[in-house]
């Protein structure tokens, strides 16, 4: 991983990696650099970018997405139905957990992959585009896991009497419509979730960077773990507001599409109209803002608990500073 390695110059090298670089500073392999914190020589459970790191990040995604969606999704009528018929909603956590497993772990993977391709200087200059590309790639694959659960969930929630459990609904849908029943909503799901996730990750990354630069009165390395997690929640909530706005029209379409047989995206758009696709936006902003803030808080808390590397916000590489100063 070569993303922003210059910010880790201050950290002492590991044994066996003390060969000096051209500028006289210790030369560390890129992954070693990012497996260490700029704030302290903290011991970590694994190396940044390793298979163990990506797997544990995926576990963090399971906990953050599974727990938060299960807690926030059942609002108003759905909540009342869950209280009366709790078996109708078994399997919700499993579906969102599968998506979280893919989304967070794959985001870390693609961020490493694309930054390696760009190199440290271009990775810094194009970091927003890097975040957007990595998150879009991760969500594309995560939605393939989520689509069947989303289709079953909507069918159970919106068609009373159709089925009471996931185990009952899934075979019934397959008999009626075949495999397409579970994936007919994947295209609008991509339209909803990919912009949502691109905003969720890129806005979060840049918001955290801005908070530490312009709002927090002390550097990140001088903040306690709880203070850092507080900043994480605030950054996540702000990102969630923008997520709700960009994904709301597609969310309205997905709900109708999975509820009714024989419908198409264009047909639903014509029927809903401009007002219909934006109906309920304020409620969605409140829900998604809280949801996203909690997801990032839980995800970062898992990293802290498991002693995973948590690199600070990126800083301009020294080599790029020198180039800019010469111009």
From TrEMBL:
<keyword id="KW-0472">Membrane</keyword>
<comment type="function">
    <text>Inorganic ion transporter that transports phosphate or copper ions across the mitochondrial inner membrane into the matrix compartment. Mediates proton-coupled symport of phosphate ions necessary for mitochondrial oxidative phosphorylation of ADP to ATP. Transports copper ions probably in the form of anionic copper(I) complexes to maintain mitochondrial matrix copper pool and to supply copper for cytochrome C oxidase complex assembly. May also play a role in regulation of the mitochondrial permeability transition pore (mPTP).</text>
</comment>
<dbReference type="InterPro" id="IPR018108">
    <property type="entry name" value="MCP_transmembrane"/>
</dbReference>
<keyword id="KW-0496">Mitochondrion</keyword>
<feature type="repeat" description="Solcar">
    <location>
        <begin position="227"/>
        <end position="305"/>
    </location>
</feature>
<protein>
    <recommendedName>
        <fullName>Solute carrier family 25 member 3</fullName>
    </recommendedName>
</protein>
<comment type="similarity">
    <text>Belongs to the mitochondrial carrier (TC 2.A.29) family.</text>
</comment>
<dbReference type="GO" id="GO:1990547">
    <property type="term" value="P:mitochondrial phosphate ion transmembrane transport"/>
</dbReference>
<dbReference type="InterPro" id="IPR023395">
    <property type="entry name" value="MCP_dom_sf"/>
</dbReference>
<dbReference type="GO" id="GO:0005743">
    <property type="term" value="C:mitochondrial inner membrane"/>
</dbReference>
<feature type="repeat" description="Solcar">
    <location>
        <begin position="126"/>
        <end position="210"/>
    </location>
</feature>
<dbReference type="Pfam" id="PF00153">
    <property type="entry name" value="Mito_carr"/>
</dbReference>
<comment type="subunit">
    <text>Interacts with PPIF; the interaction is impaired by CsA.</text>
</comment>
<dbReference type="InterPro" id="IPR044677">
    <property type="entry name" value="SLC25A3/Pic2/Mir1-like"/>
</dbReference>
<feature type="transmembrane region" description="Helical">
    <location>
        <begin position="281"/>
        <end position="299"/>
    </location>
</feature>
<dbReference type="GO" id="GO:0005315">
    <property type="term" value="F:phosphate transmembrane transporter activity"/>
</dbReference>
<keyword id="KW-1133">Transmembrane helix</keyword>
<keyword id="KW-0812">Transmembrane</keyword>
<keyword id="KW-0999">Mitochondrion inner membrane</keyword>
<keyword id="KW-0677">Repeat</keyword>
<keyword id="KW-0813">Transport</keyword>
